[in-house]
Amino acid sequence: MQLEVLGVGGAGCRIADAVRAAEPTDHSFLTDVFAFDTDERSLHGTVIPESHRSRYGPDDIDGGLEGDLERGRTVGRAYADELLESVPRPTAEPADAILVAVGLGGATGGGTVPALVATLQQRTETPVYVLATLPADREFDAAAGRSGSRPRGSADAPRPNAAANAMATLERLDGVASAIITFDNEDWLRPGESLRDGRDRCNRELATRIAAVFAGGGDSEGPVAQTVVDASDVRRIVGDQSAVVALGYGDQTVETSDSRFGLGLLSTEPDVDTSEAVSAIETVVRKGIRGKLSLKCDPETAARGLLIVGGPPAWLNRQAIAEGRRTLESAIGGSGILGGDAPRPDGDRVFAAVVLAGVESERIEALRAAADRTEPAD
Ligand SMILES: Nc1nc2c(ncn2[C@@H]2O[C@H](COP(=O)(O)OP(=O)(O)OP(=O)(O)O)[C@@H](O)[C@H]2O)c(=O)[nH]1
């Protein structure tokens, strides 16, 4: 399927960058990637071409909004329409879905994204998914003096309102976004690691999962999947009711003709031992369902699930993929399951991407409690 990505605010733009970098060379899936921010300096830090970036908002907020969500909302409402006109968005061959990336603790992204998504929903039939990071506790704990003080305006400055902003924005996205794909910084930053130090690694992890789900198995040159997961399949699973979505992923490096013959001069498919292929698929599916998810939750709470198993074609054992699907079916509480394969002839790993839609997570409850302890954002 073909995806358009809009990054908003510091996190959103960096994540949009990372998704662009994660596009498989043998399987393009992005129509365009755009970056919108109130902070010119942060915008310049992205590798998204200038024609695809837009700095917006009054001049006095050029350093970003530093967590002032109220102001962020005012700016967002005022600029949502204009932003979509400020860049050359594809009209001839529109994408199958739009993904709007945002860091929920901030004010630029958090203030703008609900208005932007509502505008997009009015203008198009295309589903608009939000890719949202949840703030790490250390961001607002630091503000409470538990991790020492850091200068305002820096990437590691305390964000006292991060939890309150996140919950307020999440509520505003409810009923507006087609689905909300979540990534919890708390779980993905290492103990003691600052956001600045860990964010690029986190963004790569997140982008790998997005590429694995949305690049799918169809619509591109090269071998076509036996069971193609297309845009309408993704839509059926994630839905259009603002479901909270968690992503799982597992991969394993495997031997390919290139790795076997050194320079890849022999382009014959290697003979892959069936039991090795089955075992690789079992391993990655298990990691995808039971390993670390983008948002900690019990897969049992998911209403629907999607499994995509990808890798070099010779490794994609059909029976093992069907078995993986059954494993996912028994892991989730709901009943809607879809699955497919994603051949990657140039790849050197077998992977499983898992989408769990409609999950319940204690982490969101914990953030809500933290939000209640701080000043209300409204
Ligand atoms: N995963 C990830 N999270 C990030 C990154 N940068 C920031 N965050 C998270 O996103 C939240 C919002 O940060 P920004 O995106 O910089 O904020 P903003 O939307 O630009 O808003 P203001 O800075 O308040 O104007 C933070 O509280 C962090 O939790 C990043 O590169 N990756």
Automatic annotation (TrEMBL):
Record's keyword terms, sorted: Cell shape, Cytoplasm, GTP-binding, Nucleotide-binding
Main location, first listed in the record: cytoplasm
Protein localization: Cytoplasm
One record GO biological process: cell division
Record GO terms (molecular function): GTP binding; GTPase activity
KW RNA-binding (keyword) present: no
Transmembrane annotation, as ranges: none
A single Gene Ontology CC term: cell division site
Coiled coil (residue ranges): none
Domain called Tubulin-like CetZ C-terminal: residue spans: 192-371
One of the Pfam families matching this protein, by short name: Tubulin
HAMAP family to which the protein is assigned, alphabetical: CetZ
Cited function: Involved in cell shape control.
Descriptive protein name: Tubulin-like protein CetZ
Lineage of the species this protein comes from: Archaea, Methanobacteriati, Methanobacteriota, Stenosarchaea group, Halobacteria
